[in-house]
Structures are given as C-alpha cells and as structure tokens.
Write a structure and sequence with these properties.
The chain has 349 residues and is an alpha/beta fold. The protein is built from 18 helices and five strands. The longest helix has 25 residues. The chain is elongated. The mean pLDDT is 86.
Amino acid sequence: MAYREVKKEHAFQVFSRQLREDDFEPVVFMRGEEEYLIEWACNSLADKYVEKTMRDVDFIKTADEENVEGLLAACDTFSVFSEKRIVWARNFQPLLKKTAKGFGERELAAISEYITNPNPQTILVFSCAQPEEGSPLVKELKSRCRTYTFDKLDRTQLEAFAAKRFRAAGADIDRSTIRYLIDETGYFNRDTEYRLFNLENDIRKVCDYCWGNPITEEDIDSTVKGDMDRFVFDFLDAAVSGKKDKALSMLGNILGGGGEVYSLLGLLINQFELMLEAKEISEMTGSRQQAAEVLKVNPYRVKKALSFADKFSIKKLKEILVQLYETDRNIKTGLIEQNLALELLMGRI
C-alpha cells in the first residue's frame, strides 16, 4: 500500500496525533532538515513503547556504518519487557547514496524482504536529513512506508515551540519578545543554517542569563548571537553611518574569531542584492510590503534591508555591488591581499 505525505499539517502534528492513536506500522521513514524533530519523534516512540528500565536494550540507535545483517538482527529480536522495540537507523548509507559501498543487490533485497514481512513487535525507523532521491531504498520507502517530512516550522508553529520551552523553564517572557527573539535568530532568513537545535540552545542561554527575571529584548541582545545576518546589519549600520573604524574593527573581530572572508563577502553580497531588489520593487509598486511578497523573503528582513537601502540611491547600490563582486574576485584570484581589499572596499561604501 502506498502512502502520500500530508501537506496541510506539519509532519510533527501528524506524528503527534498518530502517537496518541497508537497508529504506527513496523517500518517508517523520517526525513527533513529539522533533525531536531526527527530525534524528538524517535524519542517519543521510545517513551511510548519501551519500558523505562529497558531503554538501553530496546531502543536501538544504529551507527552510520551499520550493515544490513546487524540492522535486521536488531529488528528481529523480541523484547521480553517492552511493548515494542524501537530501532532507529539514522543516516543509513543506502539512504544517502544511489550505490553505497557494502550494500549491493543482496543486501537491498534483504531489507525489501523485511519491509514486506516485518517483525510486528519492532518499529524500524529509517531517517536522514537529505536523502538521495535516486536511491533504490529511498524510492521503496516512499512508495511502501509512511513518510514524515520534518521541514522547518512556520512562524506560528515556531512561536509555539519557543513559548512551550520558555514555559517549561519557568521563564517570564511575553509573546512580542518571543517574536523578537525569532527575528534576531534569522531562522526564516534565506539560506540560513539556523535550526531548532540552535533555537533551543539560545532559549537555554537566555533563561540562564535572566535567572527568573522577566526576559526583555535587551536580554536577548546580550545573549543570543543568532545568525550572521545580524552581524551584517550591525556592520552596515556602522559603515553607512560613517563609523569606518568601528566597521573595520567588527571585520577584524569576526575574521580573527574564525570567520571566513569568502563567507563574509557572500553575506554582504546577498544583503546588498536584497537591498537593491527590495528598493527597486518598492519604488516600482509604491508598496514596501509587496517587496517581501514578491521576493518571498521574511518581511522583517526586507523591512530592515529597506531601512538601509533608503540611505542609498539605486545607482549607488549597484555601484557597491559591483565593488563587492570585484573584491570577491580579486581576493579569490590572489590579485590583492584580503585585509587590504576589505579596507579599500570600506572606503567606497
């Protein structure tokens, strides 16, 4: 029987409902960039079906390099005390490659046979963040087993996620401050690598910092580094305000702290491209809000980008972008030393 993924609800909502209803089959497939939710789902299965005193025995987390024989042996072992065993095959190699070393036709046939006739007392979970769509195992799991795609949360879901964790920590924080935290982290920024693991860690840092006192935006500024996009805004603020020394100091600090000049230039280029595109759209349509809708970018980020773009003409933004492209090329080709190139760039912004 083939299953289709539910689109209207997030996978964690579907999973939560099925957990309450005890609605699970012996083999499931979990995928998606929010690995935090995959880990949460597997732990939730263990909490429900595995006897607490037998967790080390009946909740099996296989190594990346686990072979088929070992995996299936774990699945075929019956538990004496737990309602079911949970076997979690995380980053199983045949999920990640079309042809994984050590996993030929015989091994894949053995997995396929198990999927056809699984142990009803075991729930086998295959998971990875980015599966290889051309993999025979991925194709079989998608067509024959229930699939949960744990993508990023939307804003409402993320606010609820954060609020729940603040409550669990006994923290005093209002909804507007939670929204401020989310905006500062850059979770919804394009190409960000900030995930729920990062957010949970930042929530813990904020709670530890405030130690029972009401949490304010200033507390978040003091404790949450967030994504590099925040650095870019602060850097641009110094640069366009004529505070060149401060801007150069910020560059030195981030590069000296392990930051990579190519990544930094990439962020600056992306930011100025966004500023230019947003300014052109807002001037053409007469609506600043429409720029976010057309670009499909977090409205908060577009609003902030436009606040900086207002300090430049479209012609000047284009000139700065050309200079950024040239600086990036000159550093990569070795035509100019990177620190000197960045100093020259600062003089032109």
